[in-house]
Specification:
Layout (H helix, E strand, L loop, with lengths): L2 E2 H7 L6 H9 L3 E3 L2 E2 L5 E2 L4 E6 L2 E7 L15 E8 L1
Helix pairs in contact: 1-2
C-alpha cells in the first residue's frame, strides 16, 4: 500500500493541513530517504522522512499507512528518529 506524502503528513497530524504539507513539499522542505520530493510522492512503510522547519527539522520513520486514522491513532503511524535544531 502507498500513500501520498502530503496526505500522510495531514492524516498523521504532523502538519495541520494538507495545503501546508503540499506547500512544504513544493518548496523542498520534505525529504524521503534523503531526497527532496513533490507532494504526490508515494510513501511506503519504512521510509525515513525529514521535514525542515525554520531553524530545525523533524526526522521520522513511517510505520503505518492509514488513510482514515483517528486522532488517537495518528501517533502510531510514525516513529520519531530525531528532532533537532540545524
Amino acid at each position: 500500500m502507498n500513500m501520498r506524502v502530503d496526505k500522510f503528513l495531514k492524516v498523521s497530524r504532523l502538519l495541520k493541513r494538507r495545503s501546508v504539507a503540499k506547500s512544504a513539499a513544493d518548496s523542498g522542505r520534505v525529504l524521503i530517504n534523503g531526497r527532496e520530493v513533490k507532494p504526490g510522492h508515494k510513501l511506503k512503510i519504512g521510509d525515513a522522512v525529514t521535514i525542515v522547519f525554520g531553524d530545525g527539522e523533524l526526522k521520522f520513520r513511517v510505520l503505518l499507512l492509514n488513510e482514515r486514522a483517528q486522532k488517537a491513532d495518528a501517533a502510531e503511524m510514525y516513529e520519531i528518529i530525531d528532532e533537532g535544531v540545524m
